[in-house]
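Handout for the seminar on molecular recognition.
Each group receives one record of this type.
Step one: identify the two inputs.
Step two: read the structure output and locate the region that could contact pyridoxal-5'-phosphate.
Step three: write two sentences on what you found, then compare them with the reference statements printed after the record.
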Amino acid sequence: MGAPVRYSLVAEEVTAACRQAGRDPDEVRLVAVSKTVGEGAVSAALAQGARDFAENRPDQLVAKATAFPEARWHFIGNIQSRRIRDIVAHASLVHSLHELRHGERIDAVAAQLSKVQDVLVEVNVSGEQSKSGVAPADAAAFVAACAALPHVRVRGLMTMAPQGDLEAARGCFQGLAQLADEARRRLPGEQAAAFGELSMGMSGDWRQAIAAGATMVRIGRAIFSDTFE
Ligand SMILES: *Cc1c(COP(=O)(O)O)cnc(C)c1O
């Protein structure tokens, strides 16, 4: 037996945090990060109302998206060129695009699959060496370059905050929101209208992310791990 799944509890907490921050709960999507759990836990979360799940490995994305086609599957992991076909075939949203050659490959594969792939651009707001993402100064130009690809639709930005320092996380999330405003202003009308998602906040810092304007929080341990309190 795995740990008890706490999706509905976390969903209630997210709704309460939205109200506290003066935000409409319908503007914030809870994405359940199922990368550490199996299909039993995914089933349990689905039964509690989960509709959005995220994986960081292509193999797991393919397996779980195939097993649970009723859910929306997000890809939040490191993108490798040779796995882009699997990712595009199964992901409703790719959160982690930060290299133009990958954007071009996604565009080509999406064209073959007669699809327009929704993506987010990952930005390394905190500047930590260990984190991936485009540099903040390059974000707007990178967004514009990807948005010009006909089978790629850039929906917004994603970041990961420094861990263990909630003040630093808050600054990081506010920085991402500001970069998104700047990037949107540089997009042509139709592309600007599609651009507005902010994927930020994980188990330890999602409250700060919601206060800073997150439209998607990616939560794993708080839902699925029995050692997170
Ligand atoms: C694992 C992961 C998460 C979820 O982290 P938790 O701390 O388990 O909530 C969110 N985003 C990304 C990119 C991840 O890899």
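Reference statements: The mean pLDDT is 97. The longest strand covers residues 152-158.
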